[in-house]
Amino acid sequence: xxxxxxxxxxxxxxxxxxxxxxxxxxxxxxxxxxxxxxxxxxxxxxxxxxxxxxxxxxxxxxxxxxxxxxxxxxxxxxxxxxxxxxxxxxxxxxxxxxxxxxxxxxxxxxxxxxxxxxxxxxxxxxxxxxxxxxxx
Length: 136
Prior knowledge:
Layout: E1 2-4, E2 11-14, E3 19-23, E4 28-32, H1 36-47, H2 53-61, H3 64-67, H4 70-84, E5 107-112, E6 118-123
Helix pairs in contact: 2-4
């Protein structure tokens, strides 16, 4: 998006990376524009130089007093989770079935032989309707 900033040939370009580029007749400078959350973090870090909220939560999660309380430990880790691991969601996949496929499933069970050893043997599947036994 182009926005003119003056009538002297300067212009500002706001890119997807949140960078402002100013072009004048003789120089070009690039200035990064901070988001509101980055500005707030910078204010906190001015007072506490080594502070970062995720690091602080991770340190809190490993304190002995938190580890002794499973509910509190769970809540602290739950608060950290969205910032370090992407949230999973279900996605419905719609497709048209263009062909029919036959799936054959084989079942196995453990069988003990006369010598005492155990082996897996295939359980026979019904192959014909006549294999069904009528229940009374």
